[in-house]
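Propose amino acids for all 465 sites.
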């Protein structure tokens, strides 16, 4: 009987002629469709072997069911990189792609990316242009810098600054600022690989202006200042203020360059957060080149933005590493757009997700938690414990070290171990990334926005049903 049934299985070539399947081929290509159809057919074969399918009718019904299912799966398959919902309360989550993109930036991308773009074409002159022309003016306008450009990320920006200014010369750095950024990237290594010699000054906890002064020689190319953005030395400490360092360096005719890390453009202390030096603070103090990330506190796309003196920016641009580190058209588009948003700081705080999340007060987060509670209340009847709790949230992503934000979360627990729930929540179409604490699932509301609330409620209602 099984042998007879096997013979009735449809042939792949015949299936290809079906209308629904040829549509799928047009949309996704032949190979992926063939693969899912073969999977479906081998499942049917297994069922025949096990005796679960034992009549011709059964076979036809099951085949049809599995083929439709596999075509649906093909439509929904997003690959491994996809949207997730961040319920961890860590705003700049390094594992979750750091800054979520402002709506306005996403719209700029979809409106422009499908066609050609004048990335290196000057429309006015009808001649070759430069990709950096599209971003320089707006960055200068917002930061007050004399000149600006950008590379692929801030690690590249630091390396480029050191290479462009310091090759075969010396760069002075305080021992208190020799940070590791993560991903095995350390300031001493960057300097070494840029073919400059690092001259260390001071001690881990204290560096004085005379330490810098004693280290300056005719080989000195620059003094590098690194913002210790992912840790803080506390206790008996001292470091040299920017303006003091600048006076010293300029008196010797050498520039000060700074890796500012996060690159905040708005004084966040106005919103109750710790005072972080802004890009403008650094420029105003006279720092000659400042670099910072595009997707930390700036809240845009991955990039390393360099601002400062025109002459030094030109040096960086001319260095061969610039070609290796260059931004692509998406970055050029998004960098321009994110800086435009900062022309109105109030608008920026409201519309750049990272800034909105960091500055939102706890009462607003609490009311979002209450809203979510109302949407999932039904699970209480299934024996689920449901409360709203106060927690600690973090800026994350090597920004605002030690900065704890007031968090509000929903705590869920029932008979099922919380780890099992957490795992299930990761395995759905739009994964919900949660924290587990004392065998309870913790859903942080600061990093979930109003638009995601209904999705989150549906996910919880399903998981805790
Ligand atoms: C994050 C950080 C970097 C690296 O920036 P990326 O954009 O991740 O390459 C460099 N320096 C400091 C101080 C940082 O905080």
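Proposal:
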């Amino acid at each position: 009987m099984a042998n007879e049934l096997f013979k009735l299985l449809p042939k792949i070539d015949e299936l290809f002629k079906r209308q629904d399947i040829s549509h799928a081929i047009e949309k996704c290509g032949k190979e992926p469709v063939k693969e899912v159809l073969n999977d479906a057919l081998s499942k049917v074969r297994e069922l025949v072997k096990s005796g679960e399918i034992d009549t011709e009718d059964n076979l036809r019904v099951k085949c049809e069911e599995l083929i439709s299912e596999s075509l649906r799966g093909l439509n929904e398959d997003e690959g491994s990189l996809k949207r997730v919902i961040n319920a961890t309360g860590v705003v700049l989550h390094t594992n979750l792609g750091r800054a979520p993109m402002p709506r306005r930036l996403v719209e700029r991308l979809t409106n422009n990316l499908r066609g050609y773009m004048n990335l290196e074409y000057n429309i006015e002159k009808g001649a070759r242009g430069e990709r950096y022309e599209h971003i320089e003016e707006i960055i200068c306008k917002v930061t007050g810098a004399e000149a600006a450009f950008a590379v692929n990320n801030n690690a590249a920006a630091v390396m480029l600054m050191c290479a462009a200014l310091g090759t075969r010369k010396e760069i002075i750095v305080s021992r208190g600022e020799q940070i590791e950024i993560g991903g095995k990237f350390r300031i001493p290594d960057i300097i070494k690989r840029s073919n400059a010699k690092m001259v260390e000054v001071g001690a881990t906890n204290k560096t004085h202006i005379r330490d810098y002064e004693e280290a300056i020689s005719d080989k000195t190319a620059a003094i590098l200042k690194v913002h210790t953005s992912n840790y803080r030395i506390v206790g008996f400490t001292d470091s040299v203020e920017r303006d003091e360092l600048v006076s010293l360096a300029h008196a010797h005719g050498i520039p000060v360059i700074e890796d500012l890390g996060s690159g905040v453009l708005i004084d966040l202390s106005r919103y109750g957060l710790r005072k972080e030096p802004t890009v403008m603070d650094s420029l105003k103090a006279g720092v000659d080149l400042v670099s910072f990330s595009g997707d930390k506190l700036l809240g845009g796309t991955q990039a390393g933005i360099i601002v400062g003196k025109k002459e030094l920016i030109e040096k960086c641009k001319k260095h061969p590493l610039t070609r290796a580190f260059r931004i692509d058209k998406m970055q050029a588009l998004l960098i321009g757009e994110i800086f435009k948003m900062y022309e109105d700081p109030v608008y920026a705080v409201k519309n750049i997700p990272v800034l909105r999340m960091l500055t939102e007060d706890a009462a607003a987060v609490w009311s979002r938690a209450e809203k979510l509670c109302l949407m999932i209340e039904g699970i209480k009847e299934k024996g689920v414990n449901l409360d709203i709790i106060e927690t600690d949230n973090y800026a994350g992503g090597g920004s605002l070290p030690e900065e704890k934000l007031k968090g509000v979360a929903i705590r869920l627990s029932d008979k099922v171990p919380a780890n099992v729930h957490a795992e299930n929540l990761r395995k759905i179409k739009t994964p919900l990334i949660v924290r587990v604490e004392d065998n309870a699932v913790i859903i942080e509301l600061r990093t979930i926005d109003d638009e995601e609330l209904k999705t989150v409620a549906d996910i919880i209602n399903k998981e805790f049903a």
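The chain is about 45% helix and 20% strand. The pocket of pyridoxal-5'-phosphate is lined by residues 153-155, 158, 179, 181, 226-227, 229-230, 259, 261-262, 293, 304, 398 (CB under 6 Å).
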